[in-house]
Structure formats: C-alpha cells, structure tokens
Predict the structure.
Amino acid sequence: MHKVNVKNTEIETKAYSFTDDKGGERKGETRYQKAVIDCDAYRKPIRIKLGTREAYPVGEYQIDFEASTKFTDAGDLVAEKNIVLQPMKKAA
C-alpha cells in the first residue's frame, strides 16, 4: 500500500512558452504541489501537477487509480497527465 503525504499547501509555478504548429507563440504556467510518496519499496519526494485545481490540504492521501490512469486505443494502461489524490480512509 502506498501513502502520499502532503506537508504544506504551497504551490510552485513554472512558466513556459513555445511556438505552436501555426507559428503562434503560446505562454502559460504549470502549477505543482510538493509531497512525499511512501510505500514498501521506496520513499520519494514528488511533485503533484495541479492544473487548475486548488492545492491539496495538508494530510495523508492515496493515488486515485481510476482517475489517474487511462487506456490507450491499443489497450495499454498509462498515467493521465495529472495525478489525482484522494484522502486516506481512517481505520475503523
């Protein structure tokens, strides 16, 4: 079982710009929140790409598998562009 620990609600931003297929310049920013993923095999700092979502509150989460993965037309299981977290369920 894995656990994702969100320690603060700070959002990091990274600006980007590129030229699209029509020669137009595109600009924007990517928003990230830092966390730590902890499982049997490793414990690693990670960045959660937020898109337009608000920061996750401080707490313990798990990755929402169904919302964070998809199947290609060929049937391959791949990660979505943005990982989605869900709060850990409290033990009864």
Observations:
- The first strand starts at residue 3 and ends at 6.
